[in-house]
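Q: How would the structure tokens look for this protein?
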Amino acid sequence: MLSRPASCRGCPLDSIATGFMAPSLSSLADRYKVALVGEALGEQEAEEGSPFVGKAGFRLTRLIEWAGLDRSKFDIFNVCWCRPPDNKLEGTPYELPAAAHCRSAHWDYLISRSRVLVPLGNVATGILT
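A: Here is the predicted structure in token form.
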């Protein structure tokens, strides 16, 4: 499990969340320049410190493969880089402030790496639009 960096201080989730993730960034020269953006870490993601490695990751990988694409050519990260209490972010009082903090502290710079951002779910869609 990755420990949260000092940049997480001031986030409403800092003292109540678990885990921290590093984004899964494609270093391939022929990458798609597409970012898949999820909500937050689940239990297995928090343990491994990587986005979409649990059940949702299995499904995501299978869908990508079914479409004839290569997962390693995508950038993959979440709007919140830790696991919120009870694995619930949507509809909580800290949803928007936590996502805003994560954006400025962790992933805002990632947006310029991609030509296309694909939000995966309600929270990511709301944050990115």
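The first strand starts at residue 34 and ends at 38.

Residues 35 and 122 are 16 Å apart (CA to CA).

Upvote if useful.
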